[in-house]
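Journal club side-thread
Mid-discussion, someone asked how the predicted structure for our own chain would compare to the paper's figures. Pasting it here so we can look after the session.
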Amino acid sequence: MATDNMGFDPAEIAEVKQKMQANGLPFLINEEEPNSDQFVHFSFVGHHENTEVIFDCVMYTLRLIHNDKLISIAEEEAAKEFPGYIPFDIDEEGNEVGEYPEGKEEDIEDFKATILMELEEEETVKVAESLELFPDWDYGVGLEVALNVEEITEQIIENFVNSYKSSDFKLDATLYTFQHDEEGEDDGDED
């Protein structure tokens, strides 16, 4: 744990606690992030290895994790099928990178759509709830959690924070797969 990590600084912790108290919630949403109902970046104060610390947490829905895995597989398959195709991604600076070979954009997008449909129909990709801790984070302790919920709400975050802090938090190990229906909505299936 680095001594310059402000997430361990008692004054910083006191400031975060004060802001949480003012909001009436046991967490603070990071308003600088592009949060959505599928992804929320927030922080809360808790204990790690008997030390009070700020947890810098990102919470995802399983649906989003599942979708990301599907897209990643489709991108990899397209790169194998189309020489010169560089799959699209976001670099460290937040810029989109990737490249289509000349005149192949439509063919590649059609190919990826077919792969996505096949993966969904075959229920190839399955995901379970997860929690990953990053003790050597830049700010406090990093925490990524994926939950099987329809959307991330303040109540979901509050329930998570309270159960995590009281050591009552339990992951659901069930494997899930999701499929899109005709109207663009996802249906989750348990396995």
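Post-session note: Residues 182-186 have pLDDT under 50 and may be disordered.
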